[in-house]
Design brief:
The chain has 215 residues and is α+β, with helices and mostly antiparallel strands. The chain has a domain of 146 residues: Roll (SH3 type barrels). It is 36% helix and 22% strand. It has five helices and nine strands. The protein has a four-stranded antiparallel β-sheet with strand order 4-3-8-9, sandwiched between helices. Strands 5-6-7 form a three-stranded antiparallel β-sheet. It is extended, with a radius of gyration of 42 Å.
Length: 215
């Protein structure tokens, strides 16, 4: 693909990346989703060739994200688009999505993501976008990301403690009392504070009497 006298490598790269999405979906048609593989696909709802019900277009006037994991059927893959049936709010819907309308394709199970240029962009030289980190890819999914189902594990409530019976409380207080008594008996008795001054006074009195007898 060329533009004037130059080869448009960016456009060729975008087509090759769309070919990856097409090849993956073709494989799913033949063998089903292997292991933990599942896909988040974000696309522009106003892009040419997109077919949605009126209620979905009203709910997602610009961009929408679908998840191909457990509940989807009648997946049909063509050269320029794919079709699939999904359930939204309990209502089955048929979607037709051209590859050129896709903005983001993610397989979270292997941390793989592709981001595509907006075909309606007015930029003359779009920045190249290739594979994405998972954080960047999920940030690009947009508002529909919040509607995508995610399994969460509920934390088990901690069992309430049983109130102690009088017998258990008494049994627990006995070792504590014994420990306190042992600590008290092990401590040496403190010497009376008044004993030293008394002894000093007696010694002074004895010295004074000896001095008187000497005279």
């Amino acid at each position: 693909m060329t533009t004037g006298s130059e080869i448009d490598y960016e456009a060729l790269q975008q087509d090759a990346m769309r070919g990856v999405v097409r090849a993956v979906l073709n494989q799913i048609v033949k063998t089903g989703l292997p292991g933990e593989h599942h896909f988040y696909i974000s696309f522009l709802t106003q892009s040419p060739g997109v077919i949605l019900s009126k209620r979905l277009k009203e709910k997602y006037p610009h961009e929408m994200t679908i998840v191909l994991q457990h509940r989807f059927w009648d997946l049909i893959v063509s050269d320029d688009r794919f079709e699939v049936k999904l359930t939204f709010d309990g209502i089955p819907e048929r979607l037709v999505i051209p590859y050129r309308s896709i903005k983001v394709f993610i397989d979270p199970s292997v941390r793989f993501g592709l981001q595509f240029e907006d075909a309606s962009s007015d930029r003359e030289t779009p920045a190249p976008r290739r594979s994405l980190t998972m954080d960047a890819a999920f940030d690009s999914v947009g508002e529909a990301r919040a509607d995508s189902p995610r399994a969460t594990l509920a934390k088990k409530p901690r069992p309430a403690r049983k109130p102690k019976t009088e017998k258990e409380a008494t049994a627990q207080s006995v070792p504590q009392a014994a420990s306190q008594a042992s600590s008290a008996s092990a401590a040496p008795p403190a010497a009376p504070a008044a004993a030293q001054p008394a002894a000093s006074a007696a010694a002074t009195s004895h010295t004074a009497s000896d001095a008187t007898e000497g005279r």
